[in-house]
Structures are given as structure tokens and as C-alpha cells.
Design goal:
The protein is α/β, with parallel strands linked by helices and 163 residues long. It is built from 6 helices and 5 strands, in the order βββαβαααβαα. The longest helix has 14 residues, at 43-56. It is globular and about 45 Å long.
């Protein structure tokens, strides 16, 4: 099975604000670009969603994948195994549990390693992902990041048992 390389980036203007992700998938002669924009989200959510969408785009389980990301939030959470401890604790008091669970579901299907790259530092594919992420955040018909919007509702309650 051929090695697959996934480059990702996320962006949010205002953080929170309009945002988007960009993904470039490479394997041999194959290349695919993905992007999507959202009305209201955060940079970290878009960084993580880019990785998720890239992995979800793979057709064959058990693929050997190298993910390149300029997000310390994403790379460190995985490479330092923080996300696995967060899961054991039910993601209690952690941001983006909806996306982290979705990530873990797709991550388990492949052999994935992560490499952190410095953002905006002459990595052509990372720069392309940044262009895709920023451009998608400026689209006219942006989607709703329901996970983020739900997290805002949860914070409006004053007491734990309030809805």
C-alpha cells in the first residue's frame, strides 16, 4: 500500500469568527485538495477538523499516513498522548470533545504519524493549505459549526444541572 501524505491547516478570523480548513492529500501521482468554511468557529477547531477530514477521505483502512500540521495543539495532543488520557476522563473540561472523538474514531483505522511543520515557512503544501483555509473562511455560503455553537450554549448555564 502506498504511503499517503496529508497536509492540513486551519484558520479563523477573529478566533472565534469565520473560519475554514484546507487539506492537501498526496500519494504517488494522486493529489486531492479539500476545504470548507464555517460562519463561527475557532482556529483550533479548524486545525483539528482539517486532520479529521483528510483521514476520512481515505478509501482503504490500514493506510500508512503521515500528517503534516503547523498546529502544536493537534500534533502535541497526539504525539504526547494527551488525547488518549482526555478520552479516559471523558474529555472532562477539555475543548472540542466532539472533534477529538471523531478524530479518534478515524485515527484508529489507519497507521498515522504526525509531523509538526512551522507555519508560513516555505513548506509549499502547508502554504497551499493556508490559502485554502483562508479562502474557504471567506465564502458566501458558510456552514454552521454545530459543535462550536453547542459549546456556547453549554456555557450559558449557571449551574451544572441546568439545560
Amino acid at each position: 500500500m502506498a504511503e499517503i501524505f496529508i497536509y492540513t491547516d486551519g484558520a479563523a478570523s477573529g478566533n472565534p469568527g469565520p473560519g475554514g480548513y484546507g487539506v492537501v492529500l498526496l500519494s504517488g501521482q494522486h493529489r486531492k485538495e479539500l476545504s470548507q468554511g464555517f460562519v463561527l468557529t475557532t482556529n483550533n477547531r479548524m486545525e483539528l477538523l482539517g486532520v479529521i477530514v483528510g483521514l476520512e477521505a481515505l478509501k482503504n483502512q490500514g493506510s500508512n499516513v503521515t500528517v503534516y500540521s503547523d498546529s502544536r495543539y493537534v500534533v502535541d495532543a497526539i504525539e504526547k498522548a494527551w488525547v488518549f488520557a482526555w478520552k479516559k476522563k471523558g474529555f472532562k473540561k477539555k475543548k472540542n470533545p466532539d472533534l477529538w472523538q471523531r478524530f479518534l474514531d478515524v485515527y484508529a483505522k489507519h497507521n498515522v504519524k504526525f509531523i509538526w511543520v512551522k507555519g508560513h515557512a516555505d513548506n509549499i503544501e502547508n502554504q497551499r493549505c493556508d490559502e485554502l483555509a483562508v479562502a474557504s473562511s471567506r465564502w458566501k455560503n458558510l456552514l454552521t459549526d454545530t459543535g462550536y455553537e453547542e459549546s456556547l450554549k453549554d456555557k450559558s448555564a449557571l449551574f451544572d444541572d441546568e439545560e
